[in-house]
Amino acid sequence: MCLSENEPGGPRRCDGHAEIGFSEAKSKLATILDEQGSISNQLQPIESQLVRARALAEAARANGNEQVYTRELARIENIEKVAEPLRVRAKKIINTKGAQMQTLAEKQADFRATSTGLRALQEEIDSKRIVARDESLPLAEREVARIEAGRLQSIAEKAKLRMDSEEQHRLQNAKNHGWDYQVKDVVPISSYSTLSEEPREATGDHRDYYHAADQFAADRSVTMYAQGTISDPESAEYDKYQVVIGNEEGKTVALDLSNYTQVPMRDPQDPLSSMQSAPSRAEVYMALNKRFAEQRAEPSFDKWIGGKGHLASKDDPRYEELKAQWQSSARERARLKKVLGDERFEKLATL
Q1: pLDDT digits (tens, 9 = 90+) for 36-92
Q2: Among 236, 307, 305, 297, which residue's Cα sits nearest to residue 265?
Q3: Looking at CB atoms within 10 Å, which of 143, 197, 301, 339 has the fewest?
């Protein structure tokens, strides 16, 4: 738990820790299955030897061959001494596997009830729906895909309900403690740009730029999710839209995305649709890079805004708003540098 019950905004599980927990649970189950397979491979020939020795002993007893009977009984006893410890281990591993499968199911549910997990689930649903609509495929295959898409959609809806329920719990917890807290929509950030096909076809510097942004976005040690604050759950616009970026140590920085680019709209009637409009990691990085590059080239806002020709004069009503955004992004840049570290921040600033 990244924030406890007694911390403002808590209790909360962050995307990164939930994903790590799910990955570790899968890894542990894979290790258990490997061990189970190893024990089974060791037991199989031993059990075969036992079957053969018992058959020989029974035949010798039936034929009155005492010497062979005695020899096979001794062999059975020796084989059993080798087999029994393996049987004990096999029984324990079955119990361990059952417990780990339950843990995996719980960790998977925890991960799916996060922005990153919900996005991954939605992408899986979309891929199944594509198969279901592909008339070039056999009807049976399309039908299986359709049913699976429906099953996954049901899981996604339950995961979103859980996220909403947890958010309401945090709101109530804040009211109980007298904390200042607003309802938030937590929406996912995917790894790659939704426009990735276009950059792949670009040439020269543009191609290299998009490729560098995609590579930077693929760094999974950096967590990222969007958090839209709303005062009215029925509103189509966010009061505030932040992108939260975190590092391996759990340190985070919240960036106001409106300082860098246009923020997405929301559909109050279809919360899952917010996943489709959420910016990708690459798109976030490119928006940050653009502003940081501009500030590095021209630190003075007045010179920058004059050179861009955005405003005719300081009397323009938008002057103060744009200047506040410029100054805010400069402060955010300093905080982001602490979270990403010098090397990663320099890479972001020079995409």
Answers
A1: 999 999 999 999 999 999 999 999 999 999 999 999 999 999 999 999 999 999 999
A2: 236
A3: 197
